Amino acid sequence: MIDLFIALSPLLTVGFGGLLLMLAEALGKPANNTGMSPDGAVVVDAGAGRSEELGLLATVILFSGAASSMGVWLADPATLGVELVSPWLQVDRYSLFFSFILCISGGLCTLLGGGYLEEHKIDRGEFFTLVVFSTVGAIALGFAGDLLTVFVALETMSLGVYCMIGLRRSSPRAGEAALKYFLLGSFAAAIMMFGAALLYAATGHTDLAGIGAFVGGLGGEASGETAMVIVGMLLMLIGMAFKISAVPFHMWAPDAYEGAPTPTTSFMAAAVKTAAFAVLLRILLIAFGDPRLMSWGAGWPPVMACLSVLSMTIANVIAGRQSSVKRMLAYSSISHAGYLLMGVCAAMRLPEEASASVMFYLAGYCISTIGAFGALILCGSRGKEAVSYADLAGIGRRHPAAAAAFALFVISLAGMPPTAGFFGKLYVFRATIDAELYSLAIIGLLNSIVGAYYYMKVLVFMYMREPIPGAPIAIPMRSSMVVSALIIAAALVVAIGVLPGALLEMAAVAAAALS
Amino acid sequence: MVDSYLPMFLTFAISLIACTVMFTFGHFLGPKNPSPAKNMPFECGNDTEGAKFTRMNVKFYLTAILFVVFDIEVVFIYPWAVLFKGLGWVGFATMLMFIVSLLVALVYTWKKGGLEWES
């Protein structure tokens, strides 16, 4: 029994940490003991004006979640009596790999939030609790091996994010973003639930392995069950495609990403997407891993390949035409979903190699994208975000450290050495080519060249342009928390970029646990 | 397949026919003598007042959502209480964890002023 608690410790640490954080927020004195906000207004809310201490507490909770994931990984989860909670929660090295990435991403986002919220006068303590509980949902999504836990975890993750988007209550943009994401997100969840219901009706199983076994036992002739399984599978995929914001299910993403406070945006781009990919790979390979559903001519690979090509191409074309950097990063995250889906397609022929490459890519992408949003936070201050390319003009001279960090993350997102993004792309392309999906690989390669254009535009504006005379100049903000988040992220990006072998080996071990 | 759904279809058909018949006969046979007093909106005998859309206080929403949370708690506790002996200490600990987390939520709501109607 104790073994089981140890095995579930990543989930329990973050979950109970979240409860403690709630108490810390509610029982503390508002606004640093004075009951006043910095601008003199009376604050009655107990969580307001304390973003530094609450942010730090949330970061500690999330990083200790990461540490306990690593501990369970080293202790080998298979020996910890995890079959008691199986198949509802599958504690294996695959899910621990993801819970590690998710905790690190969540921790970096709370660090960013600790600096951002105060600067932009939305200093609400709820943000940190919501991040922690959303991360609990995301971790549970990585663990989930049953359609019921998949749904519950997905909703736990999404509910927090809906609130975090609407944190800036006075802004109509934020309200629009939150409502849009909420409506489309619940719509997607409903579609997924419908798919799950059809799968249960056809197979009599809600656990993924049971569905997989039933599909494997189906006869070759067309029957009602076969049709229901295929329709159920497609509906599940639609729900998942919403969460990873693959074209054509991406309509909510740019607006939600742009309207949300930037730390929330980075959480959505990193953690939500990673958790969705974790469950997507597990569902596809475990429940629909039958050769008849997993070939180039039939089943999910052609669907995923279409989504991949559309996401890469359309997102890259639109991203190049944006004038807002935040919106460009939103489209860039859609295009990254496209590259990742390419790896998912390759998993039909080489499950282990392709899954490992997708996991490696996700780790690099998460840290780089959080870092890019964090650098964007650092470039604007006093309630004014640096959102357009013009705001970035001359940052390289005015604030060289922020510009250098931004440049590093953008280079990593573009996939150039010596960064984590380069090896992520390299491994995903190698897996695609090894799986003999040459046309897909060529389209992906062309797209990453197109993508480099708008990433380079950031560098050009930062280092080679000067602000237009008379234009308002955003003064970079000062925040030790944002800076430390950027330092951690930069160190990780460079470390993975210089020594990719260790992480790839871990990803390979994790991927082996999946099948 | 058809046999098992036949009663449902019959119920559906009969209710459809009954409604159609009642409305049709009422429409053609009923006497119609409209007057201004009869055309006024009817609201349980009271005169109508106020605008069509009113903003509700957000406190109603908060109370409603708190009710749902603690209502769901009861939904989980009942089956647990019925099977209490069979579940043993593990079941007790699990339920304790659940109730403690809800207790934390209650303390949170209380301290954040969610239970105060007047302020």
Any descriptors?
heterodimer; A: 515 residues; mainly alpha; 0% strand; B: 119 residues; Methane Monooxygenase Hydroxylase, Chain G, domain 1; 2 domains; 4 helices; flat
Query: Which strand-content bin applies to the residues of chain B?
Result: under 5%
Our count of helices of chain B gives 4
Q: Portion of residues in helices of chain A?
A: over 70%
Derived structural class of chain A: mainly alpha
Query: If helices are DSSP runs of H or I spanning 4 or more residues, what is the number of helices of chain A?
Result: 22
Report what the structure shows:
The complex is a heterodimer of chains A (515) and B (119). Chain A is mainly α. Helices cover 75% and strands 0% of the residues of chain A. Chain A is built from 22 helices and no strands. The relative contact order of chain A is 0.10. The model of chain A has no long low-confidence stretch (mean pLDDT 90). Chain B is mainly α and 119 residues long. In chain B, 71% of the residues lie in helices and 0% in strands. In chain B, helix 3 (58-82) runs antiparallel to helix 4. The termini of chain B are far apart. The interface between A and B is small, with 11 and 11 residues.
In short:
The complex is a heterodimer of chains A (515) and B (119). With 515 residues, chain A is mainly α.
Outline the secondary-structure elements:
The complex is a heterodimer of chains A (515) and B (119).
Chain A (H helix, E strand, L loop, with lengths): L1 H6 L1 H19 L3 H5 L15 H24 L18 H27 L6 H18 L3 H19 L6 H32 L4 H10 L6 H20 L8 H8 L2 H26 L12 H20 L5 H22 L4 H29 L9 H4 L2 H4 L1 H15 L5 H15 L3 H27 L15 H19 L1 H15 L1
Helix pairs in contact in A: 2-4, 2-6, 4-5, 4-6, 5-6, 5-12, 5-15, 5-21, 5-22, 6-7, 6-12, 7-8, 7-12, 8-10, 8-11, 9-12, 11-14, 12-14, 12-15, 13-14, 13-20, 14-15, 14-19, 14-20, 15-18, 15-19, 15-21, 15-22, 18-20, 18-21, 19-21, 21-22
Chain B lengths: L1 H28 L6 H4 L18 H25 L1 H28 L8
Helix pairs in contact in B: 3-4
